[in-house]
Design goal:
By secondary structure, this protein is an alpha/beta fold. It folds into 2 domains: 186 residues, Rossmann fold (3-Layer(aba) Sandwich); 83 residues, 3-Layer(aba) Sandwich (Rossmann fold). The protein is 44% helix and 14% strand.
């Protein structure tokens, strides 16, 4: 199956309640496959082409507020249009699944594959201090696997989850093992799983539920942002994923995700045949980034090569991870030890006095 096609099939099989999207190359086969499969006849799943990307993400907001498994998909400029909706979803702590099959930009750009949505995906994209949990598949099989996993993580953290693929993975065809079908959640299931917050109708025995991202009290807003940051730290502790290939004795390590990781996997083989001890470090979660295992490798390897289909975006996270254990360019005079904030202040004072 194509990567895009298997996203659609996996959504049906994992009990998705609703898909709301808008066609855009190179991910249009997701909606086309869903329309052809007609899951509303099979499971009751809603599949709707909205009038725009903005409409689609707000339909996801409405369904997610009711505790439903809701998802959307798009490609780079379409995701740009969804950013306001995504920050609302994050601010209201609503779980959902977003698929981005990236293409080149900026602007409308090209319809060819790219990985230049990395910043948009991992740095929030919209306004405010929020993050999406981002999964990066490197195969059609992972396109399948990450749909169910994405929903699982979305409801675990009450947070939007993104599958960040690219046009290569979306359009290529590979053999895939499909998951067994699970039924959509019943009203009783939603009450059990999301009953503390979901809009399931006011019950006499509880207070009403309000879903909003608005807080006019600045102190309460600050408390809420601290809560979000604690949630993101929990993600870093419990759900960081990566893969290592031939890294145990490597002198040089490729760092790559998605389709670029597939190219690097072959490059490792070719290097090894020439006596070069190369390895591959593949981040699977782009947020939270697997910085700790990369830091561990940085203590003993000679160098890293970040490979990506962009002008260089993930390389910033590689630098941040590696520089946590190696000399930092701006603070090299400290002998490779990253100074504390107090040490930085004292150093700045000395520079000012000297000047």
């Amino acid at each position: 199956m194509k990567g895009n096609e298997v996203i659609a099939e996996a959504a049906i099989r994992c009990g998705c309640d609703g898909y709301f999207g808008y066609p855009i190359t190179p991910q249009s086969e997701i909606m086309e496959t869903l329309m052809a499969r007609e899951p509303w006849k099979e499971t009751g799943m809603v599949v709707l082409q909205a009038e725009s990307e903005i409409a689609a993400i707000n339909m996801v907001y409405g369904a997610a507020a009711c505790g439903k498994k809701a998802m959307t998909s798009s490609s780079s400029p379409g995701l740009s249009l969804k950013q306001e909706g995504l920050t609302y979803l994050a601010g209201a702590e609503l779980p959902c699944l977003v698929v981005d099959v990236a293409r080149g930009g900026p602007g409308l750009g090209t319809i060819q594959p790219a990985q230049s949505d990395y910043f948009q995906a991992t740095r929030g994209g919209g306004h405010g201090d929020y993050h999406l949990l981002v999964l990066a598949p490197a195969s059609v099989q992972e396109m399948n696997d990450f749909v169910a996993l994405g929903f699982e993580l979305a409801f675990k953290y009450r947070n939007p989850v993104m599958i960040l693929a690219d046009g290569v993975i979306g359009q290529m065809m590979e053999k895939v093992r499909l998951d067994d079908r699970v039924p959509r959640w019943s009203d009783e299931d939603i009450e059990r799983i999301s009953g503390e917050w979901a809009l399931t109708g006011k019950k006499n025995e509880r207070a009403r539920h309000v879903v909003t991202s608005l807080e006019l009290d600045s102190y309460k807003q600050e408390e809420f942002n601290h809560k979000l940051q604690a949630k993101y730290r929990r993600m870093e502790t419990e759900d960081v994923r990566h893969e290592e290939l031939s890294c145990d004795d490597a002198d040089y390590i490729f760092v790559a995700y998605g389709s670029s990781a597939r190219v690097c996997q072959k490059s490792v083989q070719l290097c090894r045949e020439q006596g070069i001890k190369a390895g591959l470090f593949r981040p699977i979660t782009l947020y939270p980034y697997p910085r700790l295992p990369l830091q561990a490798l940085a203590r003993r390897v000679k160098g890293f090569l970040a490979v990506e289909m962009s002008a260089g975006q993930m390389v910033d996270d590689v630098r941040l991870a590696v520089n946590a254990t190696a000399p930092v360019e701006h603070f090299g005079r400290y002998g490779g030890v990253i100074p504390t904030p107090d040490e930085i202040v004292e150093a700045l004072k000395k520079q000012i006095i000297k000047a």
